[in-house]
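Ticket #4471: structure output looks truncated?

Reporter: J.K.
Steps to reproduce: submitted the chain below (162 residues) through the standard prediction queue, then opened the result file.
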Amino acid sequence: MGFELEGFVRSLAPDALATRQAYRSDVEAFVAWAGRAGVSDPENVDRLMLRRYLAYLATRRYSRRTIARKAAAIRRYFAWLRRHELITVDPSRRLSAPAGEARLPRVLAPSELEALLEPARDGVRGDVPEPVAARDDALLELLYAAGCESPSLAGSDWAMST
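Returned output as attached by the reporter:
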């Protein structure tokens, strides 16, 4: 049967580009590692093999956060295989990985926020039509109040629409 990577990658279409690229790379790396161990079919992967792979990643000095992401990609991949009845048992069920280091985003200083909002208060807009400027102001305030991170904003389709 093989590992059916292309079907899995197609299933990631609704996700952000960075997520699709990371998950594809993570699963491909696992498949290559499993292949070196003589496994050519996902049905032959068991929980012990997955745990060994995560331990291998730790010996390669990957950060805990990276290992956690790779484990999430592997769990999603095997869940996809199971959902499509390409395997009978999901070996990644209850697979745990080290928790990533918690990092809080940097918050804007009051002076930075003031500089960001200042052009809106001064009415300095260049040739931006007023409805577009009002929309931009509303989005900026909403995103800041909601704590939206810039990678999430940059990856959204609506961010570029006018």
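Triage note (M.O.): checked the attachment and the full token line is present. The radius of gyration is 22 Å.
Status: closed, working as intended.
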